[in-house]
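Need the bound structure for fe (ii) ion, inputs here:
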Amino acid sequence: MDIADCYIKVRHRTEAICEPLQIEDYVVQPVVDVSPPKWHIGHTTWFFETFILKPYFAEYQEFDPNYNYVFNSYYETVGNRVIRTDRGNLSRPTVIDIKRYRKYVDDAMLNFITCGDISDDVKELLILGFNHEEQHQELLLTDIKYILGNNPLFPAYSKDYAAPKSHKTGAPFIKLNEGIYEIGFEGEGFSFDNELNRHKVYLNAFEISPDLVTNAEYLEFINAGGYHDFRHWHAAGWDWVNNNKAEAPMYWHNIDGEWHNYTYHGLQPVHMHDAVTHISYYEAYAYASWKGMRLPTEFEWEAAAKQFNWGLRWEWTESAYLPYPGFAKAPGAIGEYNGKFMVGQKVLRGASEVTSPNHSRITYRNFFQPELRWQFTGIRLAK
Ligand SMILES: [Fe+2]
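Answer from helper R.:
Posting the output first, comments after.
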């Protein structure tokens, strides 16, 4: 597929994700981590406009200079912006305005890609733009789930959404020998800067489960009083449990003694064989502790990942999100993409059922604060 087709395909997918929404769904921001869908569709457009059209396409006329303030996410290099908590307070630009902005930038981008002589540097930025938009496609799906799943009417997102089936192998834990393993991205193709450099780590012998923890297994922890036993929790986790009155994964509701959870199809009885999801790192850690086990480090996960199926859940690891040896930030605004977030977050490995197709790799490093659970997070045990 040529690069113009790739551009069209990635942009269409974002629009297809928004297809089932009503106009009001595009605007709200129920919590700071959830951005309004209209902000995502504007921000992904702004990314191409700011990092490709404005610097590299001489004849490009900016759509609206004020949009930089509205759709800049976190790039200090690119100037001031609406604070993140206020994204849901903006009734303007309207959804129609933002769709017009998308069309305007798409037309310019396709002119630029097909008529101009694209340098390798610009090609690299384009591919970063595709990967950036794919990350926002996943955020759109999880943010839409939060918006609808916290509405008292529990509206379905789309009856067409097909959740992939979990398949538990029931096989014994996979054993890996102690030794030196190579970690990080190498070779052709795209990777984010945080997957570099490839380097060696020494691992003690360990065992890792071929399966994700299921809802049925997690329910045993709930029923055993796991949320009421401080011994399984970090101090910060125990504060989180108490401050939030947590007693089950996000989206779970106990209705007349039966657990239900919000899904893209609306509120449904919990499918017990599915992999548990929407849990914080604190909960993943506490569950592992209750089982007398632990979470894998990100290095153990990567060393073992060819031997199990992954991709249904972002799997919390025991690793802090830190730079690899030799990590270097790119010069300019693009250097703000990953590096400045390497503090106070945990690494998650794998991918989830709403990760964009072809967006996952064995070396991919996702990262979130330990209390967050609106992503499709899950648990794989190690010992
Ligand atoms: Fe972004």
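Comments: The mean pLDDT is 96. The two ends are 44 Å apart (CA to CA).
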